[in-house]
Amino acid sequence: MKLLEFTSNGIYCSKADVYLDPWRGVKKAIITHGHSDHARWGSKSYITQIDNVPILKHRLGDISVSGKKYGDKFQINGVTFSFHPAGHIPGSSQIRVEYKGEVWVFTGDFKTQDDKISTPYEPIKCNTFITECTFGLPVYKWEKPKIVHEQINNWWAENKSNGVTSLLMGYSLGKIQRLLKNLEPEIGKIFTHGATEKMTEVLRSKIDFPKTTLITRDTSKKEIQGNLVLAPPAVLGSAWSRKLGITSTGYASGWMAIRGARRRRAVDRSFVLSDHADWDGLLSAIYSTECENVITTHGYTDIFAKYLNEQGLNALSEKTEYEQETPETENLK
Ligand SMILES: [Zn+2]
Predict the structure, then answer these.
(1) Within this chain, do residues 65 and 192 fall inside the same structural domain, yes or no?
(2) What is the number of H-type helices and E-type strands within the chain?
(3) Of 3, 231, 288, 308, which has the fewest Cβ atoms less than 10 A away?
């Protein structure tokens, strides 16, 4: 029997009778991070990294959840589990599973760049590495984050000097806070959409962010003018965003690297900033685990597994219900 199997409920460890990021409600779920395709409602009990506990409670409501620190080992039926930083978003983890000397690691989502708000990714030695490969094609190669943040601040400063409001969009958990952390508050005021403000408030207990002001019914166009507004991508073209007055729209996502992307065409400025590993990041992560086997779970799974096989690894892809992330599903993150 394999240590972890892919079942209709999710990734299952039968020896411990627990699921990792299950896509249906189960008795016991171990969760990598708070995005909606990995942390689903309906399980009886949840175990996750301690910084992810308030995020899960905010997203899933009144659940039974216990938190563990990075690196702390815990046993279930003789199987040893531990969480290790995935660098994807705050509180995100890889899950290490060990039984009788055999080690499997499940990444959930991860990135190798340091985003200044998440604990940076740590490679974990293992026999089998279960990995995402959202951007598992050689065309995906990320710029240094510092350069992208400079582009964003320059865009904002230029809009400000023209009396134009900057509407900057990204998904609510992780991306928005990464953007916020790197904005230069000297340029102007930072306003937020309700969904953005709530999620940021949850993370403020652990992370220091610049001040934000929630846009309410009483906020006037004049107050906002020339300043920056952070919001989820769903507001694009909505009545809510039209009320902001004259805006320049910007969208931050790894998908902005694709020239024809629909959302890239719909905004004034696109910023290539991803919370997933790029091609080089994926490969360096895989090699640093020194694994023999790789299982790809979501993204360009088949192409990526084929490439790894050609490099002498034993790789295959498995079907999961993690979203094949696209610009359109980012509204859910
Ligand atoms: Zn994610």
Answers:
(1) no
(2) 9, 19
(3) 288
